[in-house]
Amino acid sequence: VQLQASGGGLVQAGGSLRLSCAASGRTFSRYVMGWFRQAPGKEREFVARISWNGGLTNYTDSVKGRFSVSRDNAKNTVTLQMNSLKPEDTAVYYCAAGETYSDYAPAYWGQGTLVTVSS
Fold first, then answer.
1. Tell me: the pLDDT tens digits for 20-40?
2. Is 14 helix (H, G, I), strand (E, B) or coil?
3. In the list 31, 33, 48, 64, which could disulfide-bond 78, CB 3.0-4.6 Å?
4. 3 φ/ψ angles, rounded to the nearest 5 degrees
């Protein structure tokens, strides 16, 4: 599966952004979709994931209550709605696809989209 992320940009603290990831292929619904991010000088970290049918979601603690992940299997897209953004959310955000939910180790990655939150 090929992934294309979009929607990044510059936003002030407290603002919102909506990231989208479009997937190619007809097997999108087989994959657990997720979002990761990598801030300057830091390692890539998990942000959120959503199960095959969207029934399960999971978030890293720092974004709980502010970010929401969703998917549309008919359109082969996954979305990350980011609200109440903070400067520490600044990072390149990557969408990813993997086969398992519990031990989530994505095999496919998008190219990344930059989110910059100004204070």
1. 999 997 789 999 999 999 999
2. coil
3. 33
4. -120, 140
